[in-house]
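Please fill in the sequence for the structure shown.

STRUCTURE ENCODING:
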C-alpha cells in the first residue's frame, strides 16, 4: 500500500464522507472510491460500510486505522526531520509571541542568532489568544513564547524565561482603581473578563478564576478573543482583567488603571515547542532566549 493510499484511507476514516475526503486531499471523489476498492480487494476484507447516506468503518477497518495512524505520523515526522537536516546550513525560524515584551526578547535573541549563524534568520509572528497553540500544531511556528501553564496535547513546555508580577487592569473610575494594591479576594468586587473558546479548565481557573481563594464568586464579564479587545472592554467599564504588571508600560490609555496584585502566583512566560521534537537550530535559539531573558 503506497503512502498516498494510506493517507486517503486515514482521511476517509476521519471524515466518513467521500466528498469531504476528496476536497481535503484535493482529489476527486472517484479517486477516493477507486483507492478504497483497490485496498479492499488487496486485503480481502471490507474496510467501510457504504450506503447512499452513510459511510462507516467496519471492525477490520477500525483496527487498520488504529494501527496505521501512529505509524503514518512517525513516517511523516521522519520525513520532516530529514528534510529539515537538508536545510540545516541555512534557513528561517518562525517564532511566535503573545505580548510585546516577549516579542522584544525574540528580537534580541534573533539578532544574536544572525551573528552566530549568518545563513539563518528569525521571523516573528503575533499569536492570538483565540488560536493560542494552532500555529504550532499546523507547523507554522517552530517555537513560541507564551503564558504558562500549558495543558495542550502535542505541545511541550520548555524553560521559563520571564516571571512577571501580576496586576489588575481596571476601569479608571472603579473604586479599586485608587488602591495602592489589590488582593485576590478583591476580585469578587468586579466582573472579570474571560477568554473566549474551549480551553482546559485549570488554564481558565489560573487566568480567569471563577472564585476567590475564600470561595466568593467572581462576577463574569464579557469574553474576548484577542488582547486588543481587553483595554477597550475595560475602559468601557465592562470588567477587569488579570495581566502582567508591566502591561501598564505598554498599554496605558485613558480610562484604564493598572493596580498591582499583592498575592497569588507570578505570571510566567516560557518556551513552547511541538512535542514531535525541535527543528534544526531551535535548541541553540532557546539557549539565546534564556541568555537574553537573564
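FILLED IN BY: designer on duty
SEQUENCE:
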Amino acid at each position: 500500500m503506497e503512502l498516498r493510499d494510506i493517507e486517503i484511507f486515514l482521511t476517509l476514516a476521519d471524515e466518513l464522507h467521500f466528498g469531504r475526503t476528496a476536497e481535503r486531499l484535493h482529489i476527486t471523489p472517484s479517486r477516493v472510491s477507486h483507492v478504497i476498492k483497490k485496498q479492499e480487494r488487496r486485503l480481502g476484507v471490507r474496510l467501510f460500510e457504504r450506503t447512499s447516506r452513510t459511510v462507516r468503518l467496519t471492525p477490520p477497518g477500525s483496527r487498520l486505522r488504529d494501527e496505521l495512524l501512529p505509524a503514518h505520523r512517525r513516517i511523516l515526522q521522519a520525513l520532516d526531520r530529514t528534510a529539515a537536516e537538508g536545510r540545516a546550513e541555512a534557513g528561517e525560524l518562525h517564532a511566535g509571541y503573545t505580548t510585546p515584551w516577549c516579542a522584544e526578547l525574540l528580537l534580541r535573541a534573533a539578532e544574536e542568532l544572525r551573528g552566530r549563524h549568518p545563513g539563518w534568520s528569525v521571523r516573528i509572528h503575533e499569536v492570538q489568544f483565540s488560536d493560542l497553540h494552532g500555529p504550532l500544531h499546523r507547523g507554522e511556528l517552530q517555537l513560541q513564547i507564551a503564558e504558562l501553564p500549558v495543558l495542550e496535547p502535542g505541545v511541550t513546555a520548555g524553560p521559563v524565561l520571564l516571571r512577571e508580577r501580576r496586576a489588575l487592569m481596571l476601569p479608571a473610575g472603579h473604586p479599586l482603581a485608587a488602591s495602592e494594591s489589590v488582593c485576590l479576594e478583591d476580585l469578587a468586587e468586579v466582573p472579570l473578563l474571560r477568554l473566549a473558546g474551549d480551553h482546559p479548565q485549570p488554564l481558565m481557573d489560573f487566568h480567569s478564576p471563577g472564585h476567590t481563594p475564600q470561595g466568593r464568586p467572581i462576577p463574569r464579564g464579557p469574553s474576548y478573543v484577542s488582547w486588543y479587545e481587553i483595554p477597550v472592554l475595560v475602559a468601557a467599564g465592562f470588567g477587569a482583567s488579570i495581566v502582567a504588571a508591566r502591561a501598564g508600560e505598554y498599554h496605558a490609555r485613558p480610562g484604564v488603571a493598572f493596580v498591582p496584585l499583592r498575592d497569588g502566583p507570578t505570571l510566567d512566560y516560557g518556551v513552547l515547542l511541538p512535542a514531535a521534537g525541535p527543528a534544526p537550530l531551535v535548541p541553540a535559539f532557546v539557549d539565546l532566549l534564556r541568555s537574553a531573558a537573564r
